[in-house]
Amino acid sequence: MGKSFAVIGDPIDHSLSPNIHSAAFRELNLDSSYIGYRIPKGELEGGIQGLKKIKIDGFNITIPHKIEMMKYLDTMDESCSLIGAVNTVSNKDGILKGYNTDMDGFLEPFKKKELNIKGTKVLLIGSGGAARAIVAGFAKEKAKSITIANRTLEKGTSLSEFAKTIGLEANAVKIEDVNDTVRNYDIIINATSVGLKNEPSVISLDGINEKTIVYDIVYAPMNTDFIKKAKAKKATIIYGYEMLLGQAVRSFEIWHGVEAPYNAMKKALLGGF
Question: Which of 42-56, 156-170, 186-200, 252-266 has the lowest mean pLDDT?
């Protein structure tokens, strides 16, 4: 009997996940399917009942359901409770277990490229969706400190308070106050959606060098203005698609209990651009 999987959210038609997972199934000859399933805001409960009825084996959750979905889980792993959102669910005989793969997905490219996080100074731009998971990842990998740059100081401050509770030295600044301090950081991450529409980077990267790691979580376009500016300075680059791939790999391994075919998944993802 084949297994079935889905990604739920709204909008859903741009999701690259069906391509990535289908490629993995083909590569490993798994009798499984993966579809995008649109569930509008406010209709999550009915949508989940529908998925349980068809005995779906697992699903990913995207905007706008990542927080509300926690209400419908029977159990969750600690990444979920720490980050306060869920993006991957397994269904074993009607028991829904939640996971958050944002943190592992975010960290995966550092591990793949053998880039060091321990003892580094981090600048995180933005405090939205993935930011808590990113902060949790840096705490886990023992970064020295994190500065959160945000348009509104309150949001940045509340994220820096969260960072402190999990053992990471932290402070918050307004984006416009970053200026030439960029040279003080080892790792700089764009966790805002700026770049999706080809807008210019929200900060200047003058002052960084080839030792700086620059990571944009926006994955389309692949070469955002932020990435282009970093390339001009010969920085080490991590693309948004690498985080997306890290998350997909982690979901795959949660559901199937075998190592994911990374290269096949990467080819399918990059073919989608």
Answer: 186-200
Region 139-153 average pLDDT: 96
- Say how far residue 187 (Cα) sits from the centre of its chain: 17
- Assess whether pLDDT exceeds 70 at residue 192: yes
For the domain with range 3-100+243-271, which CATH number is right: 3.40.50.300, 3.40.50.10860, 3.30.365.10, 3.40.109.10?
3.40.50.10860
Q: Across residues 31-57, what is the average pLDDT? A: 97
Mean pLDDT to the nearest integer, 227-254: 96
112 labelled catalytic:
no
* pTM exceeds 0.90: yes
Give per-residue pLDDT as tens, 101-125. 999 999 999 999 999 999 999 999 9
Residue 63's pLDDT is 87
> One of 3, 41, 55, 66 is an active-site residue; which one?
66
Which residues lie below 8 Å from residue 78, measured CB to CB, with a gap of 6+?
none
Task: Classify domain 104-238 at the CATH class level.
Answer: alpha beta
